[in-house]
Amino acid sequence: xxxxxxxxxxxxxxxxxxxxxxxxxxxxxxxxxxxxxxxxxxxxxxxxxxxxxxxxxxxxxxxxxxxxxxxxxxxxxxxxxxxxxxxxxxxxxxxxxxxxxxxxxx
Length: 106
Description:
Elements: E1 2-19, E2 22-34, E3 46-52, H1 56-60, E4 74-84, E5 90-99
Antiparallel strand pairs: 1-2, 1-4, 2-3, 4-5
């Protein structure tokens, strides 16, 4: 099942290369996740969770923000695919991500 969501993007990492003859090429987005959504124990606050999406080419779409990245992160719109995982847990896969439209003050 596909789902649209807004979130805060805190970092982006591009990885491309080869290890022991095996190539890799990906971009990882670090997105805020509410700790309160954890099924085990008590928690307060948020952490970031890595989501791979696309190749290292995806990183280039965001590279212009490198020198002006805001400390609080960047609001984004995400498209996730949700599938049933082990023991009833849902597995999220990031399908697409883009900056959220700017909200103008009234």
